[in-house]
Design brief:
- The structure holds two protein chains of two kinds.
- Chain A is mostly helical.
- In chain A, 87% of the residues lie in helices and 0% in strands.
- Chain A has helices at residues 2-18, 25-41, 45-74, 82-141.
- Chain B has a 14-stranded antiparallel barrel with strand order 1-2-3-4-5-6-7-8-9-10-11-12-13-15.
- Chain B has helices spanning 2-10, 12-23, 55-60, 291-294, 335-346; strands at residues 35-48, 62-82, 89-107, 115-127, 132-145, 153-167, 170-179, 186-195, 202-207, 210-216, 221-237, 250-269, 272-289, 305-311, 314-325.
- Chain B is mainly beta.
- The termini of chain B are far apart.
- The relative contact order of chain B is 0.16.
- In chain B, strand 7 (170-179) and strand 8 form a beta hairpin.
- Classes of the chains: A mainly alpha, B mainly beta.
- At the A-B interface, helix 1, helix 2, helix 3 and helix 4 of A face helix 2, strand 2, strand 3, strand 12 and helix 5 of B.
């Protein structure tokens, strides 16, 4: 029995040291963003039921596409061979195309659910949230 | 040809988007569930048997509980479908579950017994995408007294529940469960009612599992007050000659208690949370049944016991660590997915009264702290400044 507790403590220490105790700031921003959009959109129960699963899927895809590109750039760009630079350039183009294609596909789906007026509201809310964040960061840096 | 062209025209944005996405060879998470490991420890104070006229009570002297539980669940299959006609997204989740319990009933007058309960099961949760969610669980397990040479005993606990989300603020559930939580084999109806949103203050009655008042106070901390049964049916070695009729080497030891207490759930990060709870354990029942005496009635609860006592209420302490692994798909504000998570958590793995406290359901943060450029790089670029 004591052995069990020792293992549990060891596992706990491993986790405690391996991960930041604070919540991942990206997740926190996502949660704030979702809350902000939710408040601005004022969806009906039936709209909400269909909208969120699709909007979550859209965000997951956009995030994955952007992260993929960011990680490719993180490998370093100073000592790239011509071939590597060309690949990275192509990836950049493909990423932008994918973003547009995903946006087009999901906007069409979302428009069917919440209508044109609310989809415009959604884009405005997304932009307003961005501005809120920028304001927040500027205030902190001043 | 015309049909082919029509299909292409109809699904053009999907095909284009999927092709663009596929060309990047990015793998999105398949599942909504993380792999979760739960380590749970439960302790109930020792109490003396007050019945001095009962020879077995005199022999046993006192009774307490020390319980350790390690369980897990992991997603093995997830299917998500977009239903074109009504625009809903429905999904099916198949989870593998496993449980290991080490129970030490602390009888003051006899030798120490270590009883184990171990098993693996499956659960399937079907989210219709509209109002309803189905939950089906099968948890076979074996119980054995490992301190002494004794045979194991195979049992099967199972649950089927239909959960209906009338609105975000109100949910009802109905179903049936075969459970050993109340100290015997019982076929109960499952009836649940929840008032309030799952990510806000809510009151939930889930008969026969629990009654909860949940109060989230921030993204990292949540309190709850609850009442729930804790118990089980275990194989017990007759090495102390407690059962004197016949020559059986084991008998059934069953216990249940009704725990009413206060619990704090702390979500440290996405990979780890813990809970601590304490309260009063009432209806503390301990019963010994003879296998042979009950064998003729295999489908009914055991009735022919040779010892049964209910002790006075006592204090208990329960601590749990929850480790979560893997990346998942997002389900923010998705009412049905919140319900899927709640169904999975409310029905403890392996027919146990262990609830991980819905750590997967995000609680909206109130303040905008810790916002830095790194955390928002997916949202903004330099042109925005």
């Amino acid at each position: 029995m004591k052995r069990f507790y020792k293992i549990v403590i060891l596992v706990y220490l491993f986790f405690y040291s391996g991960y930041s105790v604070a919540q991942n700031p990206k997740d926190k921003v996502t949660e704030l963003r979702i809350a902000f959009i939710s408040k601005k959109l004022e969806l009906t129960a039936s709209e909400s039921e269909k909208f969120w699963p699709i909007y979550n899927e859209y965000n997951d895809k956009i995030k994955a596409v952007k992260k993929n590109l960011r990680q490719s750039y993180k490998k370093g760009v100073d000592n790239l061979t011509d071939k590597e630079a060309e690949d990275l350039y192509q990836l950049d183009l493909k990423t932008k195309q994918a973003e547009v294609a995903i946006h087009e596909q999901y906007s069409a789906k979302i428009k069917e659910i919440i209508g044109a007026k609310k989809i415009v509201k959604l884009h405005v809310a997304e932009e307003e949230f961005k501005q809120e964040i920028i304001k927040n960061i500027k205030e902190k840096s001043d | 040809m015309l049909i082919f062209i029509s299909i292409i025209f109809l699904f053009k944005p999907e095909i284009k988007s999927q092709a663009a996405f596929d060309s990047l060879k990015i793998k999105l998470p398949k599942h909504y569930f993380k792999t979760v490991i739960i380590i749970d420890s439960y302790r109930k104070a020792n109490q003396n048997f007050t019945d001095t006229l009962n020879p077995l009570a005199t022999k046993l002297k006192s009774y307490g509980i020390k319980q350790f539980n390690a369980s897990f669940y992991t997603p093995i299959y997830t299917q998500t479908t977009d239903v074109k006609e009504n625009g809903v997204t429905k999904n099916t989740h198949l989870l593998l579950t496993g449980n290991f319990m080490l129970l030490q009933p602390l009888f003051g007058g006899i030798s120490q017994h270590s009883l184990i309960k171990a098993g693996m099961g499956v659960r399937c949760i079907i989210n219709s995408g509209k109002k309803g969610v189905w939950f089906v669980d099968a948890s076979p397990f074996v119980t054995k007294d490992v301190t002494y040479e004794s045979k194991g005993y195979f049992r099967l606990a199972s649950t089927i529940v239909y959960s209906h989300n009338v609105s975000e603020n109100f949910n009802w559930r109905v179903g049936a469960t075969k459970s050993f939580l109340w100290g015997n084999k019982h076929y109960w109806p499952f009836i649940g009612l929840r008032f309030g949103k799952l990510d806000k203050v809510n009151f939930s009655i889930q008969f026969p599992r629990s009654i909860n008042l949940n109060i989230p106070v921030g993204p990292k901390l949540s309190f709850s007050m609850y009442t729930r049964p804790q118990g089980g049916m275990f194989n017990f070695s007759n090495s102390d000659s407690l059962y004197k009729v016949g020559s059986e080497s084991t008998f059934s030891y069953t216990r249940y208690e009704l725990n009413t207490g206060f619990r704090a759930d702390v979500r440290l990060n996405d990979a780890f949370n813990f809970y601590i709870s304490t309260g009063i354990s009432s209806k503390n029942n301990v019963t010994f049944y003879s296998e042979r005496a009950n064998k003729a009635r295999p489908r009914l609860p055991y009735k022919n016991y040779f010892f049964s006592k209910t002790m006075a209420p006592t204090l208990y302490v329960n601590i749990g660590l929850v480790f979560k692994f893997g990346k998942t798909r997002s389900f923010y504000k998705d009412r049905n997915m919140y319900d899927v998570m709640d169904l999975n958590n409310a029905n403890g793995v392996g027919d146990n009264s262990i609830n991980t406290g819905n750590p997967q359901i995000p609680i909206t943060p109130k303040a905008k702290k810790d916002i830095n450029l790194g955390s928002v790089q997916d949202l903004i670029d330099y042109n925005d400044f």
